[in-house]
């Protein structure tokens, strides 16, 4: 079912719940993995994904359609993930370096993220990036979104996104070369 059809069903009080359930089924995995790549931990990613859809339920009736529905959901999800990481850092007065170490340890011990050595190195390199750079890299590299859509999600200009992606790939490359 297209996003337009889902939104039309959502507008009708009789079909609202069904439309929302279909929307969740359509986007839950994508939202989960976007969040998971940011926060690493499965339980945290599940909680944040649930929060994203709770916010979507509350705000969907005001969705104007200026962007695509998944772009809007990704924006909500990326903001929730970044807010989660910032709260975690503030709550425990933990410097960003310690948060990176904690996430890196979770990467190594998580059976769902088992991959080869190269995959693990890439994930560790991503953890070294600032959150917004990591988000841009994930959206461009893993989600294969065009810069224009990433711009809608992040509220950042295309030029700044290209620069951010360039610096992210450079940092990842440097990290991978240093750990050989």
Automatic annotation (TrEMBL):
<dbReference type="InterPro" id="IPR039425">
    <property type="entry name" value="RNA_pol_sigma-70-like"/>
</dbReference>
<dbReference type="InterPro" id="IPR013324">
    <property type="entry name" value="RNA_pol_sigma_r3/r4-like"/>
</dbReference>
<keyword id="KW-0805">Transcription regulation</keyword>
<dbReference type="Pfam" id="PF04542">
    <property type="entry name" value="Sigma70_r2"/>
</dbReference>
<dbReference type="Pfam" id="PF08281">
    <property type="entry name" value="Sigma70_r4_2"/>
</dbReference>
<dbReference type="InterPro" id="IPR036388">
    <property type="entry name" value="WH-like_DNA-bd_sf"/>
</dbReference>
<keyword id="KW-0731">Sigma factor</keyword>
<dbReference type="InterPro" id="IPR013325">
    <property type="entry name" value="RNA_pol_sigma_r2"/>
</dbReference>
<keyword id="KW-0804">Transcription</keyword>
<dbReference type="GO" id="GO:0006352">
    <property type="term" value="P:DNA-templated transcription initiation"/>
</dbReference>
<dbReference type="GO" id="GO:0003677">
    <property type="term" value="F:DNA binding"/>
</dbReference>
<dbReference type="InterPro" id="IPR014284">
    <property type="entry name" value="RNA_pol_sigma-70_dom"/>
</dbReference>
<feature type="domain" description="RNA polymerase sigma factor 70 region 4 type 2">
    <location>
        <begin position="120"/>
        <end position="169"/>
    </location>
</feature>
<comment type="similarity">
    <text>Belongs to the sigma-70 factor family. ECF subfamily.</text>
</comment>
<dbReference type="InterPro" id="IPR007627">
    <property type="entry name" value="RNA_pol_sigma70_r2"/>
</dbReference>
<dbReference type="GO" id="GO:0016987">
    <property type="term" value="F:sigma factor activity"/>
</dbReference>
<feature type="domain" description="RNA polymerase sigma-70 region 2">
    <location>
        <begin position="23"/>
        <end position="91"/>
    </location>
</feature>
<dbReference type="InterPro" id="IPR013249">
    <property type="entry name" value="RNA_pol_sigma70_r4_t2"/>
</dbReference>
<protein>
    <submittedName>
        <fullName>RNA polymerase sigma-H factor</fullName>
    </submittedName>
</protein>
